UniProtKB/TrEMBL annotation, chains A, B:
UniProt keyword list: Aminopeptidase, Hydrolase, Protease, Serine protease, Signal
Signal peptide: 1-20
Organism of derivation: Stenotrophomonas daejeonensis
Official protein name in the record: Dipeptidyl-peptidase
GO MF annotation, one: serine-type aminopeptidase activity
PANTHER family, per the entry: PERIPLASMIC PEPTIDASE SUBFAMILY S1B
């Protein structure tokens, strides 16, 4: 019950090594055979070697979908993912008279399944091969920018060769920060259809209020179906297409999870930073996060003050304000978590021990890496400010986009910076068109004043002379420059922006405008910063592998395996169903029930459970989906599995490899887990598949789908 | 784990009868011998009959103090109560250079113990005798106001006779709503001194944020000492006084509480409504509480709107706004709790069953009681509005006080309405003097506009013609009347109010003022409403005993004892240390530890634990006060004991009658317990005496006090 601040002594008394818990790890499937013993010890009843190959069952049932994860759950291409991952598909199909978001959707047979938005994709991994030598061959012996370019060119060449055969999408994944590279081949399914979605008040019950919270009561799932051409090959939507027959699909368990049960999860986690250096941890905790909290708070204050007496400005900036607040909250939560876990001191102690044990041959590289990271760290505030000047403004962003588009458009399309190629131009045009609804000159000037005032206070070696020249060094000069700029620019006029867009995309000269002139200077500064940044990136790509080698050796001494930081490739995590004890005397059960839906229900968004659900709960007819011990219907459950963004929609499997849950969220205490895994607090939140089965059986019936998945009808 | 809405069937399945749980009951000590079996079954190891007499040990160690409860904890008159019960004493002794509120206070020996404010009292109950016949003798055969007056006159006579002997304070307590009356004789100790108070950030750690919350981490205790004259008799403060030697004192246990342990508590609970009729329950749930929520919200909106662009008004009304919000929150919480417990339907079913089983001889009285309650119910909204017109205004309240004071001052002091006697005049003067800091004419007019607009919409038989004449029947008339009134009244001037106060207290004519004229008419309406109300009160006093007899008979059939609703007399509750499961998947442990202090600490009020406390926690030197199972220092604990306001400071005893805790709060889910005891949610929050002992031993040491209480020094 007691929860003392975690100290090294306490950690050791818990029987854990200093940085890893039994359930920590986003393992590459290829690593699982080496973990066979611990997998079995944890309770897995299957053959660990069967999990090693992403191109064979069961892992080839797990797909990448809409920024998250999904899995096939029938031989006819039925796909399970989160309601929030498929939200765009539901929205795309909603319209006047058919509000599938609020009312949900059940296809009245296969003919009634609705095509997703045309850019919606499902990627099935069909190849995963190590190509380290090929990637690094040209780079060896080089350094800095040359090293960077050699690696990038090799990656581009491998992707081009791989995609040449057609029908697949390829990429090269960087594992362990430049130590290893893998070629990932993925089948790209392009005809995806909406089959079953619960109403918003089930699929997103609790919305932002319950987001990151436990206990949860959300049915965050949707069923889709993948279609292919009659030849079985991926094809764009056509009514003649037929259901895709995946090489494997998952089977839903008829039993549910209970505390202590083994659980595992497969998915495509996006990004983590756990193998970063102690200095990077310290910088994140001491500088990056506090700075983000401070700057976002400053912008929140500016926007709120500007909106105080101006209802119109308040409306235009409502969404931006919400996003600033989310950013601030998230940074504060991450900071709080890292402090609570004492991550800085613990990572530092771990690195010190590693360096003491390191083979001398790595030392020079590691020292050089540390020096490069120091230089990068110094640029942290400038990079944050410059990024915000573009992302938090409307007119200045437009000018920067136009000018950079002009610069890039002078090059062949393939050589242009990503974001400015032919395929990106619709997005740029969209940004230029939506300015009117989100722009107020007084607010934009106030935001820039806050950001540029901070910029003016940067040390000399961090300020670019373009900024000094444009905005001066004093508050008065800044004030005057911004006033003149916004009084004279014509970019507030949509027609003016669009005519300049037409010129810029051809690489042609853009009609003169004061803000475009400013942007031209700022793009010069941007290009110069990018050159520096790529130089550093090349050095780090070259040097980090030595740090990794030292780490591998140190972990080997500790008897521990190392998993690569998340990078959007398929990973597996294993652990168990586990309660959460977040604070003194507060204990959360790992399984929630429908009673909680009734308790939370206020009748207004987001706690407005639909009447059919409330009626069914009151009726209490839970049939075979009721929990035998709890004697009621469960809704969500918690595991200690290792997840991050991108794991949304990941299937959760039991000891026999059967589907028991659908991952959809983490608890608030896990926000900092992208840097540091703390087994006391890290939990993942899942939909209990028995809740899905009950909804399909008794509340919004879809008997044909239950039959297709081989499940009982009640 | 599941928590379905409570239905009658579920209640029965829990093995409880429809309205009582094992731990429900604020028993009169005289009832304990009849409960001996259940007390023993619950785990009490002492002799139940020893608890029957409030004038013998251990109950005569439990005293009434400053609106709450206290207990003697040494033979030298050392008294234990809550920090918040003794707050006025600490405040009275604080001043420039000695901030005992924030820094705490430890007397440097008996000479250094500081006298309380002169009106602070400790009452030791020395007599408790049934006087029903004497009280009702003259009333029998009468009805309405005559019955009321006969009872009141008998009570006044009994009190006067009782106090004639001197040195005691007497009162007549009404049990079971006019069924029984008891004469309570209390020794009045008037020299009370401050001995030991922890700093505010311990005694009130968490303040309003944690109020009503669990888990708690508050050291809400203070030690005082009672002194008497050298002759052993109560006497006002004198440096020659000597410590009082109480006839009994409690002994602190060296063991602490753990889940499931027997616990009991003695104290002076203020008021409950559990024996009210089903119609009164329905009215509370359907009308009184929703109306309070609505009207308080309306006033909150009015005050917030008025303060929106007026920082000065915002400051003047900050405290009133906070109080309105607390009132609204409290009413909403009570309503929520009563709905959650389905109290209306359950009380109605219980009463229906009772009436079906009732002896015919009670039926006429019960019908007449129901009719009288109907009439009272109709006046509910008017009474709320009239009350708020006085309590939520400054100038109108001043005028009403002045005019009523004038009316009452024409009578002999003893016959004046309570609140307007000689002894009340300092309070009235205080109210008249503090107007300036809390008054803004625009806000007061807005408040009155809201209240009087509701008044205008009351049905004809509820509106008093004085109001119609003064404020009209339309928004325009109301607006005009208020504008004129506040433009011309001189009561905004303090000197004007005070000169009229001097006249009013002599019963003399008050210099003319428009608002005083209005008040004169409103006081006429008030007096007429009071006449009606006393007429009804007399009838209910006459009739309720028949309802009680029917209830006693029904409870006897059910095999259950009945305890009287709380009325400020000494009561006993027994139950056990019990965890709380307030919502689906949320489980609170019943004991908190010092780890929670560290977790909650932000360094700013109210989570700003003092450094010596944080250092001592970090040091972890808990000695003999550590919990043997948790291996750390505990702070607070939960029991399922039956408490309400007035139980603050109640001693919590273990099975052997030893002191283990100090009651100081309830959980939020208990707010509705004044009407309905729901064993699922009703908990009381206590300071663990081991926390007190640790603070006195290791953090803010007071070894002499530990020795005086017979406790180990570490």
């Amino acid at each position: 019950m007691t929860r003392k601040p975690l100290t090294a002594a306490l950690v050791l008394s818990m029987g854990l090594s200093a940085t890893a818990a039994a359930n920590e790890g986003m393992w590459m499937p290829t690593q699982l055979p080496e973990l066979a013993k611990t997998l079995k010890a944890a309770g897995f009843e299957g053959d660990p070697s069967a999990l090693a190959d992403v191109t064979t069952p069961p892992l080839n049932a797990v797909v990448r979908i809409g920024g998250g994860t999904g899995s096939f759950v029938s031989g006819d291409g039925l796909l399970l993912t989160n309601h929030h991952v498929a939200y765009g598909v539901i929205q795309y199909n909603s319209g006047k008279g058919h509000d599938y978001i609020n009312e949900g959707f059940i296809a009245g047979g296969r003919d009634d399944e609705r095509p997703a938005n045309p850019d919606y994709r499902v990627l099935v991994t069909v190849g995963f091969d190590k190509v380290t030598d090929e990637v690094l061959r040209e780079a060896r012996g080089k350094s800095g920018r040359a090293y960077y370019d050699a690696v990038e060119n090799a990656r581009k060449r491998i992707v081009a060769d791989c995609e040449a055969e057609g029908g697949v999408r390829c990429s090269v994944a960087n594992m362990y920060y430049g130590s290893d590279f893998y070629r990932v081949r993925q089948l790209e399914l392009t005809d995806i259809r909406l089959v079953y979605a619960p109403p918003r008040a089930i699929g997103n019950y609790g919305d932002e209020i319950d987001n990151f919270m436990w206990p949860r009561h959300t049915g965050d799932f949707t069923l889709l179906r993948a279609y292919v051409g009659k030849d079985g090959k991926p094809a764009p939507y056509s009514k003649d297409n037929v259901p895709y027959h995946p090489p494997a699909h998952l089977t839903m368990s008829l039993d549910g999870p209970k505390e202590g049960d083994y659980a595992m999860l497969a998915g495509y986690p996006g990004i983590t930073y756990r193998l970063r250096t102690a200095a990077e941890f310290a910088n994140q905790i001491d500088a990056v996060l506090p700075r983000r909290v401070e700057v976002f708070q400053q912008l929140i204050d500016v926007v709120e003050a500007a909106g105080k007496d101006d209802a119109d400005a308040r409306t235009r900036y409502a969404s931006q304000l919400q996003s600033l607040k989310n950013n601030r909250k998230r940074a504060a939560g991450e900071l709080e978590g890292l402090l609570r876990s004492d991550a800085k001191a613990r990572r530092a102690a771990d690195e010190r021990a590693m360096l003491a044990a390191t083979d001398a041959k790595y030392k020079a590289d590691i020292d050089a890496l540390f020096a490069s990271l120091d230089a990068e760290r110094a640029a942290g505030e400038r990079e944050l400010l410059v990024g915000l000047m573009s992302s938090q403004t409307q007119l200045l962003r437009s000018a920067l986009l136009l000018e950079r588009l002009r610069v890039e458009s002078a090059k062949p399309d393939a050589e242009r910076e990503s974001g400015y190629q032919q395929r990106d131009q619709a997005l740029i045009e969209g940004v230029l068109r939506q300015v009117q609804r989100r722009y107020d000159p007084a607010v934009e000037k106030a935001i820039l004043t806050a950001l540029l005032t901070r910029y003016q206070q940067l040390p000399d070696d961090q300020r670019d002379s373009h900024y000094d020249n444009l905005f001066g060094r004093t508050p008065e000069q800044l004030h005057k420059a911004l006033d003149e700029l916004y009084a004279t620019t014509k970019l507030g006029d949509e027609a003016q922006r669009l005519s300049r867009f037409e010129a810029a995309r051809k690489g042609a000269f853009i009609d003169n405008d004061p803000l475009v002139s400013v942007a031209a200077a700022l793009v010069m500064a941007q290009l110069s910063a990018e050159r520096e940044s790529k130089e550093r990136a090349g050095e780090q790509l070259r040097l980090r592998p030595s740090y990794m080698q030292a780490l591998f050796a140190w972990r080997a001494q500790q008897g521990r395996a190392v998993y690569p930081d998340a990078n959007g490739t398929l990973r597996i995590s294993y652990g168990k169903v586990e309660a959460l004890h977040p604070r003194d005397a507060v204990n959360y059960s790992p399984v929630t029930t429908v009673a909680g839906i009734v308790e939370k229900n206020t009748g207004t968004v987001p706690f407005d459970a639909p009447k059919p659900l409330l009626d069914a709960i009151a009726k209490g007819d839970f049939g075979s989906t009721a929990d035998p011990a709890l004697k009621t219907q469960t809704v969500n459950f918690l595991t200690n599995l290792d997840t991050t963004g991108g794991n949304s929609g990941s299937p959760v499997l039991n000891a026999r490899g059967e589907l028991i849950g659908l991952n959809f969220d983490s608890n608030w205490e896990s926000v900092s887990a992208s840097w540091w895994f703390d087994p006391r607090y890290k939990r993942a939140v899942h939909v209990d598949m028995r809740y899905l089965r009950w909804l399909l059986a008794k509340v919004y019936p879809a008997p044909a789908l239950l039959a297709e998945m081989g499940l009982p009808r009640e």
